[in-house]
Amino acid sequence: MRRQGSTYDRCMHLLCLHRSHFVTRTCIGHIMRFRLRTILALVAVLACCLAWLNVRAKRNRDQREAVQAIWRMGGGVAFAGGSGFEQPSGDLNWKFEFKSWLRDAIQGRNARKLILSDWGDFRASVSDDDIPQLVRVLKVMPELEEVRIRNTGITPEGVSRLRREVPGIDFSLWSTNPSVVTGEHKTPQALAGQWTVVEVQNQGVTAPSEIESEIEFTESQAILRLDASIPEPTQVFDCFVLPGEDPLKLDLRSTTHTPGLKPQNLRCIYRVEGDDLWICLEGEHARHRPIEFVSSLKNRNDLYRLSRKMPGS
User: Rounded to the nearest 10 degrees, how much is the dihedral formed by the CA atoms of 44, 50, 55, 59?
Assistant: First the structure.
């Protein structure tokens, strides 16, 4: 009886162990399946969120890049209603791209009103020649309702073309004369004559001079010849003298439509010392008239040093 009882106890013990092991294994299986389902559900939710953010980012990125394309054309976007747009950057590393994607995914880029302006800090040289590209840019802004054009190179005929090309947007033309041109239409007496370009600094970097360039100042114009050996002008500017000194101020507005060269409104300062002339003008994407004769990557200005060309030389 003792042996049978002992055997019975051992059998019951083994049965309990087996049941316990089975229950444990079953619980672990349920827990693992629950964890797996949870992980898969979280991954699915995360994937859906990322997909939604990416769709939103793409839509907003299209509008941001459209506004930046206007900047690159030379048109200052003075106001973008309901949105935060930044000027284009030359930084293209992955960190910058990720930050831009994140801002596009989170921030609103719903442009409803745009003002293309050459007013205050904004310099616009967008003209009728840029209308085909401008039309493509405006068409990626589905919520755009109004575009105001002030003091650019776009003419009333250009505005009529924009209205035909993009009928869903209200275009208004405030003025066709650049507001930077507020001075007297003439050339300063001290600049009259021909000048040879001696040195050019572009954003602080001295540009190599392989050919001789010159600028001729007439009674009311500045005639640029990138190659002095060719008599035909490369570009012609109207000169406008602004009041005030220290430094002396001059505005230049291009009058020619040379292929490959955009019409420009340039704000500059100048200084004449004997037969030497220094001209510092705002470079591409610069937002202010220069205040000193310095060219650097920070101020984006261009500095020219010229020497007076003597008769017969």
Answer: 170
Buried b (16+ CB within 10 A) or exposed e, 115-151: bbbbbeebbbbbbbbbbeebeebbebbeebeebbbbb
Strand ranges of the sheet holding 113-117, from the earlier edge strand across to the other edge: 76-80, 113-117, 146-150, 170-175
Give this prediction's pTM.
Answer: 0.46
DSSP string computed for 254-290? E----TT----EEEEEEEEETTEEEEEEE-TT--S--
Please give the mean pLDDT across all residues of the chain.
75
According to DSSP, the residues that pair with 150 across neighbouring strands are: 117, 175
CA distances from 197 to 86, 200, 255 (A): 35, 8, 21
Per DSSP, the three-state class of 31 is: helix
Examine residue 239 and state whether it is found in any structural domain, yes or no. yes
188 and 291 together in one domain = yes
CATH of the domain at 131: 3.40.50
pLDDT digits (tens, 9 = 90+) for 258-307: 555 556 678 889 999 999 999 998 876 666 678 889 888 877 788 999 99
Please count the structural domains in the chain: 2
| Domain match, 268 and 217 both | yes
Could you tell me where the DSSP H helices lie in 124-270? 131-138, 156-165
Among residues 151, 175, 199, which one ends one of the domains?
175
Q: Which domain holds residue 106?
A: 71-175
pLDDT at 279: 93
Question: Is 110 within the bounds of a domain?
Answer: yes
Phi, psi of 151 (to 5 degrees): 60, 45
Rounded CA-CA distance 203/208 in Å is 14
